[in-house]
Amino acid sequence: MDGDIMGDDVLLDVRALQIGFRVDRHTTVDAVKGVSFKVPRNGTVALVGESGSGKSVSSLAVMGLLAPDTTVIAPSSSIRFDGRELLSLPAAARRALCGKEIAMIFQEPMSSLNPVFTVGAQIGEVLRLHLGMGRAQARRRTLELLDEVGIPDPAVKIDAYPSQLSGGQQQRVMIAMAIACEPKLLIADEPTTALDVTIQKQIMALIASLQQRRAMAVLLITHDLALVAEIADQVVVMRHGEVREAGAARQVLDQPADAYTKALLHCRPRLDQRPWRLPVIADYMKEAGGGERQRFAGGDIAEGQGVTFIHPLQRERGYRPDDEPVLVVNNLSKSFYVREGWFGKREFKAVDNVSFTLARGRTLGVVGESGSGKTTVGLTLLRLHQATGGSALFDGRDLLSMTAREFQAYKRRIQIIFQNPYASLNPRFTVGQILLEPMRIHRIGADDRERTGAAYSLLEKVGLPAFAFQRYPHEFSGGQRQRIAIARCLTMKPEILVCDESVSALDVSVQAQVLNLLQDLQDEFGLSYIFISHDLSVVKYIADQVMVMRQGVVVEMADSDELYRDPKHPYTRTLLAAIAGRT
Amino acid sequence: MTGAILAGPPAGLWTLAWRRLRADRVAMLSLAVVAAFLLMLVLSAGGLVAADWEDEVGVNYAPPGFVGARVAVGPSAVAERAALPDNPFDPLADDIRALKAQLAARADATPEAARRATLPFGGDKWGHDIIKKTIKGGETSIVVGLAAAALAVGIGTLFGALSGYWGGVVDDVFNWFYSIFTAIPSVLMILAVAAVLQQRGVATIVLILGLTGWTGPYRLIRAEYIKHKGREYVLAADAIGASHWRKMFSHIFPNVSHVALVQLSILVVGFIKAEVILSFLGFGVPVGVVSWGSMLNEAQNELILGRWWQLTAAAIAMALLVTAFSLLTDALRDALDPKVK
User: Fold this and answer.
1) Which domain holds residue A281?
2) From A233's CA, which of A60, A390, A490, B264 has a CA 20 to 30 Å away?
3) Is ipTM beyond 0.85?
């Protein structure tokens, strides 16, 4: 690799790092299996990988934040920082180093800040503890820092509590805290994952400019390769605790040598392509292994047309005039009331006069940032929230005005898949119970034997093994759980499926698998989807029509190709411009 | 966890829980202790053990065997009594003499000499064997503790579930009821319920403690329901059309059951102790029924005389059961959680 750095230029040198976690008395699980990488002074290195790749564990080991009683670090491992061996340093010396010379920012700024102290007090504490500043001096410095990280009106915001700031501002405060002691190394662990796309861009720009101005090194940990392209000099791709590929960022991104890196780059749906079926990691790994090629890309249609998974068949999207409308929503509104004073209340319009038509067998994408009301639209249609106004005509009947008893019959026809597959499955139910319950409630199937048979065939349909039937949800990975959630919806043979950020919490490669599954099911059963997401690339891939929402209002609605080619509304343009990796 | 699912014979929730429990040494030990206590309860209730606890087998306040017999005080006491001269002005002198004669005749029936000077763990005022008395007392105390705690947790869980799940007016009504209940001092409350029930007995004590003890579980279960009702799995259950009752008790309850279990163990401990207070106030077990509470009550006066064994026996039995029971419920909670490997 060309970016090899020598001797004095190396700030952090991790060698043969091997970390295991003790599960119980007899078993240890290896999380990191001999990882080596270097971070040069004034350079930015990105550790890229999916969940379970060991990237976060490696960075926590550098910070010394792993729980000592359950962690086993192999004696052959070495972490040298600025010429000192961190692993043999006594605990007190190590603590003094961390926070002062190595600082870290985390994924969730909301939970990393203490809600009962003002941001000024929290930054001031760092300054007084590590630099021994007095109160007045610390406050002056805090103001400067807040100004440096781009908090508007720092003189006011210094006395604000974390809850009074937006997510982006909270992350800026976290960054101010991290750079307060002028660290030589800043570790950023998924710093933008929890933020909206437009904010993500700003935070990445801030980190990049701070790195330049302060001449510090940055170790960026992320799952998003597109993000890496923007700021990193070096990239280390990790999988299952091993380094798959390392090198200069441009080289790795443009000419990946490793099959896994290639797969990661292509699993994400792209704005300029819409393959019949998204490539998944298995395709690439098989190719690398020289094994048999799997048949794919729309099956028979693609047969013999010179289509490979690198150049797949493209799918056409968009509403056609002869589409049969299945759900017609008119002026849907939902207000929440915030109590004010003793008797007063303030109205907060979460959804304001939203109208759309969903065609049978088509997908409507709903895009927006947090607080745009996109999730509320979905929940209101399922009557999980009571609508304030408007109508939703399904088969000529208004879903929103019928009685609970009447709606019970419609529940099986309109279903929802939630964002977090870890939260949406009852942890105390086996997968079998989860699948049988809706069939029992709606009396689908003659008896339990027939229902069990149906459940087994659905498990097969969503690509899960038969023995999953007796297992509990926690025994499955995120992608598998989302498949269970999808299978649960399918037990009722719904016509409309609301996917509320259904792939957002999943790893890129798993995301591609679940998107493929959803697409296959639509092709097979003619399902109609309302696909709610903040991720514009995913929506572009799956949706026929896209509705852009902002603060409860629809700002733009158009066929997906048209919307992405020629966005009319300035907000849509801002959103599109914020997509990482798009130049 | 990256989908490392082992193919193999599946096991049900209870089989898995039992397997996990068996791996836990502390849990198995406490289970053995609790089982031993329950076995003793069954045996004594069935009259197989300690049925003869009311036999006056020892001298009064017979010390434990390992302490050794008291130096013979009996004869000197008799001599003292004999030395007391008759009062010629006593109008009851004739009656007393008749009573004394009767007493002498009774003493012949159960001769003082036939009573044992020491008992394995000592004797009480009447010379009852303390070990048998403790076993018999446990019968009452354990039944009172378990039944009253089950009643209290049952009421508290039901009210808490309804209140937390429905919120709004239902919640307000239950909260008012709760506030009124807790505003009254607990002893006054207990006395009021006791006065209404108007009879003494084990069932009454269970009712008194159960009807006044539900407030703690109610608060905790209500809070858990408020937290859980907004969770996605409950929304998902709503979306598939599950009824309210189903959501409350098939979906949410198993996820909050650990709170109820822990409350149960805390209340069992508290109620065994509360029975002591009731007995002290005269609302406890009826005369002729023994419980650990009544034993502790008697022990107050004995302790001044240096007779520590009754107190010790009741205290050890209580401490053993209570500790084992809390450890067991704790382990049970962990074992019943499918997320814990």
Assistant:
1) 268-315
2) A60
3) no
